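Internal tracking record. Fields below are filled automatically when a chain is submitted to the structure queue. Please do not edit lines marked as system-generated. If the sequence contains nonstandard residues, flag them in the REMARKS field before resubmitting.
Queue: standard
Priority: normal
Entity type: single polypeptide chain
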Amino acid sequence: MEYNIPLFKLNFGEEEIEAVTNTIRSKWISTGPKCEELENLFKEMFDVKYAISISNCTDGLHLAMITNHIGVGDEVICPSLTFAASVNCIRYVGATPVFCDITGLDNMNINPVEVEKLITPKTKAIVVVHMAGFPVDMDDIMRIAKKHNLRVIEDSCHAPLSEYKGNKLGTIGDIGTFSFFSNKNISTGEGGMIITNNEEIAKRCRLLRSHGMTTMSYQRAKGHATTYDIVDLGYNFRMDDIRASIGVVQMKKLKSDLIKREVVREFYLDALKDIEQVIIPFEKNKEFVSNYIMPIVLKDSTVEKT
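SYSTEM-GENERATED OUTPUT FOLLOWS
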């Protein structure tokens, strides 16, 4: 039987096509004014000091490890239920991932009680993933981090504009990362964003995303600089203006799209409420969230086919 359920449905329209066309006609398609425009939108919408566009969320997590001084011999606590990127970023810098269980079937986020049990003298940071866009208990996470002098990295790839007690997810820890993969709430194909209020972290992220170069091509092309130096071991983690132009349009659609998702979630909650074989994670959540996905747990499920 052919599988007919799509992985995702793009909400692209003529606006995205026009944005890409205009960017191509501008004759500047690499990192430039559209990346800067997208970064400014993030700063405004998330009320943060710094936003750095990047090639994808995985690279953002990698930079988060480096700029928070995590390396060989260190341990980083991360959720056991997550995508590989949340763990691989720890291994990229030679540190050891320490898996922490989720709170339960009704809350698929990392369990702060278990986090504290896993802390050792080698622990340097906690990676939290706001699963499906629903917030981790950030009060407890930040309390634990302050008590043990740990950094907090928010993998917010599911959670653009999701909130925890009035604060946007990604703004509570030391650094937040977002994904623009094709099935995310903000879609550009590939791409991502780092946000932070830490000036040192922001400056180093900007430096390392482009080979450790002191100035980028767009700055030199516009006459804002004539030379560059390479002052650190950097990477090619840049976003391009073609994708950023799509991201600008997507950002302007985001809030209205999330409101529609909220309505759809309420429909599912009502339709599923009397089915005893189903657990709905985050069912009692009252925060505004992205509703990136609608997870359910089947109590008596089995992978075996009958």
